[in-house]
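Course assignment 3, question 2. Fill in each field.
Student: A.L.
Task: Predict the tertiary structure for the chain below.
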Amino acid sequence: MSTTTVEVFGATAYDGKDTAAFNQIIFVFDDKSVLESRFVANASNVQKVLSLSDASEFEKLVAIAGKLSNTGDAASSSETYVFRGEGRVLTKVVLVMLPIAASRHNCPARSHALTSALKGKKTNEGTIVYLLPAADSRAYAQILGAGRAFPTFTMKSSEMTTAVVSKVHVVVEFPDTESAEVIADAANTVPYVRLAAQLVDTPPNVLHSDAYIAIARDIATELGVSITVIQGQELEAQGLGGIWGVGKAAEHLPALVILSHVPQGANAEDPSICFVGKGIVYDTGGLSIKTPTTFMAGMKMDMGGSAAVLGAFAAAVRNRSVAGPLHALLCIAENAVGPLATRPDDVHTFLSGKTVEVNNTDAEGRLVLADGVFYAHKFLNARVIIDIATLTGAQLIATGRNHAALYCNDEELEALAVVQGKYTGDLTHPMPYVPEFYRGEFKSAVADMKNSVADRSNAQVSCAGQFIGNHLEEFFARGGKWLHVDMAGPAMAGERGTGYGVALLSNIAKNL
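Answer field:
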């Protein structure tokens, strides 16, 4: 048995041995056999890890362990306080048992249940989370699930002056042999999952378009990769009428941001993998305005796709998991109301050369993505394009709050996305891919297409994806593979961002 430490977040490193600085220790058990064999029947190791003052303290833990159950749909937990060390320091110990339920469309690691069980358990002094997976293959998703439980963004005055999340660490005890690759991959991915969640949590008066571009520049510098920014009227000049039309009314002008990584041994002209993310930093709906009290509040999350792209790109670069060129395209705009706002009935020309009659300014995400994916095709020699977006409310109706919806022109790529969704905990489920059923929904008398469908009861998620696909005909003709990921539901859990998509995209790219 091997114990390996992965630091999820912390101002100081933790070596996995001295637990004295932490006032809360959480053990997460994959199943009852793990609880019995690696905790209850392993008293000497537990006492050593916790530095328990005497044997009676361990008996307290055995007593609460007996209350754990794995028969429900959610994790169960019990907690108590024990004295540790010669100084008899009082410490909270929480035992968590994951549910046995993991149906065929769920992540076998039950990472969603783990995240839910850990939420709200942060402390000022520090927390250690011990993960005890029953199989090495479950460790990655459980590490990410633990990381998601401790968000990093706050503007609460009481928390801004204290290091509430300054010391949170994850320790994994592998049942077989230590997997160095899993540890390295998770360690490089968790910070960017949490960064993506942090970006989604950030209010739009802080994360406006220019601030977002500055963050992208900082990450490019941190990673040592190149960055290109096309902003403001330069978008219009270069033919990016979709992004420009959506964001031109905002104080902070829209932009297409491209981060590019060419690994050693590859050439910039080689066929590439491109991530394209919807980055609507705030969505009022435009002139087709959302109802302010019901549908507008919370629309700071509408840049979640671009946050996933930025995080996935960074994780892939850190993990050196892609052999050829990798590009991240952030389609950044604020869908604002103002004198320059796009009107219903306006017609815009896109980078693809196609014209679009706007009949709904609140269907703006597909407009910016259409330019983004075509840019990837035309200028970046893409062999695979993956776009990801909080695109439709229909996605929640179709696949719910935990599964993103997929619309894909390639069966193998679609299957890979499902497999990696289960491995990472970023769950996915395919939608019908039948362009001939959906292209007619966008028929326009004066342009190549409208941007919103005629029949809202006809496979809305697939139709929204098809609008983007309408701009990729040249790409498809040369054999390009395209995956559209609608993650409107999984992007948020309650009022918090989840960092959805970072692990999914980076692992898809790794396995292409």
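Instructor remarks: The chain has a mean pLDDT of 93. The longest strand covers residues 272-283.
Grade: pending
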